[in-house]
Structures are given as C-alpha cells and as structure tokens.
C-alpha cells in the first residue's frame, strides 16, 4: 500500500516537473531547508520586479504533521519542487536552478522546524534526530520507509541533482553559502545565464540582497549557525554517514 501510494505521488510530481505551472518563470528546486524561499525572493526581487509571483495558501510540513500556510508564498510561482532526483530530471527543458546548502545547516534547520518531524518524535534531541532513519523521500510531505538518515538523504539528493545538471544545460547549481559570501557574483551569473536578453544588468548597489527573513518559519540565515546545535560527536557521526568526506577539515 505504501509503495503504491509513493509511486502515485511520484507520478504526479514527475508530471508537474515535465509540464509545470507558470513555465514562463525560472524554477527553483532544492532539498528542504536549503534556502529555497531565500533564492525565490532573490530572483523575484531582482529579475521579476513588479510582477505578481504569489500563490495562495497551501499545506506544508511532514506527511503526518501538516499545517496550513494561510499567508501563501509571495514568490511561489518560482518554486519547482523538492523532488528526489532521478533520470526523469533529464526531461527538464526550461530554465531551472537547484540550490544546495551545507548539509549540517540543513539537518539543524529541519530539526528546529516543528512540523517537519513526525509527531511521535516531537521533543527529541538533535543528536537523536540526526541518527533517525527518516520516513520520507525528497520532502517530508512524501511518505516513505527510508533506510537513510538525514545526512545520507541530503547527500544523495545533492549529488543526484548535480549529476543530472552535468548533462542538462537547463539546470544551474547554486550554493546557498556562496550567495551569502558573494551575492553580486551569483546575481551576475544568473543574469548571464537566463536574463541577459530580456533585462538590464543591475549595478552592485542596485541589487536587492534579501536581508529580511523570508520563508516558512525562517531560521538564522547564517553560514555557521549549525555549530550552536552540533556536538563534536554529532559532527563525527554526520561525517561518517557520508560517502564523500567533504567536511573532513570543518
């Protein structure tokens, strides 16, 4: 039953990716809690100024812990999805960006977001959360009996999208931390890739760098905020869960 339910959800998601709504706009994809709303606001304010990109209220959160977002999303027409990567992503034929973030920051943000965890685990410590096998795939809304912890899910999600992007020129990979460090360079790269034929390059002083909190229950948008939550044992466990030792010196 669960497998059939997942395949039905995946079919709907894949069809939405192949033929998305609001195709005239650049689409943003990501792993949950990777700066999705931040990038949507960054793109919306700098490339679609004075255009209504809003979507109405919708549900969000864990499949067993859904909540209504009555405010909607002011840049929702830019959202692609959080879908788990697969070969079907090769069918993306429209301008798209995949944003990824330090996996430790992603794990910390998921734990702090109250309705991204099954109600039975409410109140667990971060160390316990880090060691759980997650019960979703792609996004907390998609029920799935996974063999992965959050570190493994994040790594597979990011690496899978990166592999697809290598052979699909419609997909550009953007790093959240890089936007924070060099926002104008990232703005310029997006402009040159997708917008130079229909808009004018803004000066560095003219770019909106989205310094106000945006998104669903926004956490600190700081590069090293995850260090306030991780113990040394947690860092070691997270690193040991990965196939690629990218944080050996962190």
Tell me about this structure.
By secondary structure, the protein is an alpha/beta fold. The protein contains 8 helices and 7 strands. The strands form 3 sheets. Strands 1-4-7 form a 3-stranded parallel sheet, with helices on both faces. Strands 2-3 form a two-stranded antiparallel sheet. A hairpin with a 1-residue loop joins strand 5 and strand 6 (about 140-145). The radius of gyration is 18 Å and the shape is globular.
SSE map:
Layout: H1 2-18, E1 27-30, H2 36-47, E2 58-62, E3 65-69, E4 96-100, H3 103-112, H4 126-131, E5 136-137, E6 139-143, H5 150-166, E7 171-175, H6 176-181, H7 183-195, H8 232-241
Parallel strand pairs: 1-4, 4-7
Antiparallel strand pairs: 2-3, 5-6
Helix pairs in contact: 3-5
Category from helices, strands and their pairing: alpha/beta
Order of helices and strands: HEHEEEHHEEHEHHH
Biggest β-sheet: strands ordered side by side in the sheet: 1-4-7
Beta fraction: 5-15%
Supply the number of helical segments: 8
Shape: globular
Number of strands: 7
Distance between the termini: 42 Å
Task: Report the radius of gyration as a whole number of Å.
Answer: 18 Å
Low-confidence stretches: none
Q: Which percent range fits the helix content?
A: 25-40%
Mean pLDDT: 89
Let me know the largest β-sheet.
Answer: 3 strands, parallel
